[in-house]
Amino acid sequence: MTMLDAKAIDLHYGAAQALRGVSLQAEVGEVTCVLGRNGVGKTSLLDALAGQQPVSGGSIQWEGADITRLKPYERARRGIAYVPQGREIFPLLTVEENLKTGFGPLKREHRNIPDDVFSLFPVLQSMLGRRGGDLSGGQQQQLAIGRALVMRPKLLLLDEPTEGIQPSIIKDIGRAISYLRNLGNIAIVLVEQYLDFACELGDNFAVMDRGAVKYACDRSNLDASEISRQMAL
């Protein structure tokens, strides 16, 4: 079932066009990887899907409803969680307080931290009282993903979760994404530059250049060398 169906999205920053007719689908129980060099529009696409930036053309359907004009908090209430590049945790709040900021879109009876957060990222449990700003970059990335999971997302948008992260934590994040996919109730859109990581996890692939999707394939016809060639063009 296609949970997310973005069709022919355009996005402008003033006179500059960041997205040109981008279409992307995401299915429950699958990871859709968006690849491409820096500055090709990958983050703009996630911003559009999360409602952080208004689109100037096209439409975004979520669970069969048109959400193109909905605000970010309205999308969050519908189960869309965004882990942005740079993590954007609150440095002066504790780990526990950061996790609880994910309660915002939830009904009162669901305002607890799911066990999954600590089974996927045990370091967070041992650091609940530490300030977010005192964590390493990799630990902050785990915290940002954990905060998104507190929302019980049905769509998880991840913007380059491996960027600047040490290899051991990249493995932890990869395991977490695999686990979430295999739950079978979350659709995941992963923006990534690290091709090996994407190829290991992805079910569907889209390569972007100059604000447009220029190459797409699914796992059954995945050719990593062709994706690599497309990313280099």
Number of strands: 10
Structural class: alpha/beta
Q: Could you state the order of secondary-structure elements as H and E?
A: EEEHEEHEHHHHEHEHEEH
Measured distance between first and last alpha carbons: 33 Å
Quaternary organisation: single chain
Report the C-alpha radius of gyration, rounded.
17 Å
Q: Indicate the proportion of strand residues.
A: 25-35%
Largest sheet: 6 strands, mixed
Helix content: 25-40%
Average pLDDT, rounded to a whole number, is 94
Total of helices: 9
Task: Name the overall outline.
Answer: globular
Low-confidence stretches: none
Arrangement of strands in the largest sheet: 6-7-8-3-9-10
Structural description of this entry:
With 233 residues, the protein is of the alpha/beta class. It is 34% helix and 28% strand. The protein has 9 helices and 10 strands. The protein has helices spanning 42-50, 72-77, 95-100, 115-120, 122-126, 137-150, 167-183, 195-201, 224-232; strands at 2-13, 16-27, 31-35, 57-62, 65-66, 80-83, 155-159, 187-192, 204-209, 212-218. The strands form 2 sheets. A 6-stranded mixed β-sheet has the order 6-7-8-3-9-10, sandwiched between helices. The mean pLDDT is 94.
